[in-house]
Amino acid sequence: MQLLSFRDRVTAAIGIGIVRDTDRVIDVARSAAALGLTLPFDATDMVSLIAAGAAARTALDDLVHRAAEDLPLAALELVAPVPSPRKNIFCVGWNYLEHFAEGAKIRPHVKDMPEFPTFFTKAPTTICGPYDPIPYFAELSAQLDWEVELAVVIGTAGRDIAKEDAMEHVFGFTALNDLSWRDIQRRHGQQWFKGKSIDGTCPMGPWIVTCDALDPRGLDLVTRVNGLVKQSSNTRCMYFDIPTIIAELSRGLTLEAGDIIATGTPPGVGHARTPPEFMHPGDVLETEVAGVGVLRNPIGA
User: Fold this and answer.
1) What is the pTM of this model?
2) Along the chain (301 residues), what's the average pLDDT of each consecutive run of 10 residues?
3) Same domain, 207 and 276
4) In terms of domains, do 261 and 150 share one?
């Protein structure tokens, strides 16, 4: 099942949709009202849906089978599937061997891959939609870089989750780009938060693919800028797999429904190229995760 969030063009209200037949979308709230169904979640809030667990899935399956009306996907204004996360986005650094190696030239003191995943976060205000323009703050920096990533969306809350149980806590997967203002990132040493948390630096979507519909092992990841491939890899190249990431992150830290975990980026980032490459106003960034979809974000003025 593919679940998205969209904005009503008239009222600006947020709704939840179910993708049907690739290019049609069931409006969850409207269809439930038409069928006289009482939903076990708030149909304007994806986190509420995720937290409702099995009851939500039963209701959604019912809608898929019974809904008589749907909308063309192209007519909807998609926003990030979790447009207002309740916490920072959890991120994993250095999770592809070749990405670790390409960055070694700017941190020669770091010789070996870390024993444990390297975690940092992005502020909720970084979230933007799959087709939204990316703000460009020329007064801050001219070093806007790309990082395609597969993101995990937590479904069942837990703390001290065992590695063998980790996937039972996953609701689904989405695509995101961990956009980074590199000189700001380096300005604060190993505290990457500021350079990773400038507004609008986390395009996400186009939707969440539920975990029963997608195997996250072996998914191609691609970044294109103005149609040119900059990153091309596969999730099988992760150094720490998803169960390991969830198990380590949840040690003494409760993961909650709707939490988002970005699992790291492969090689090909701009700052590690010779010469370095960065994005500028007018560029178009495409972020693709096989089995999920493509984000297309123009870089704004």
Assistant:
1) 0.94
2) 94 94 95 96 97 97 94 95 96 79 56 82 97 96 96 98 98 98 80 91 98 97 98 95 98 98 95 94 98 98 64
3) yes
4) yes
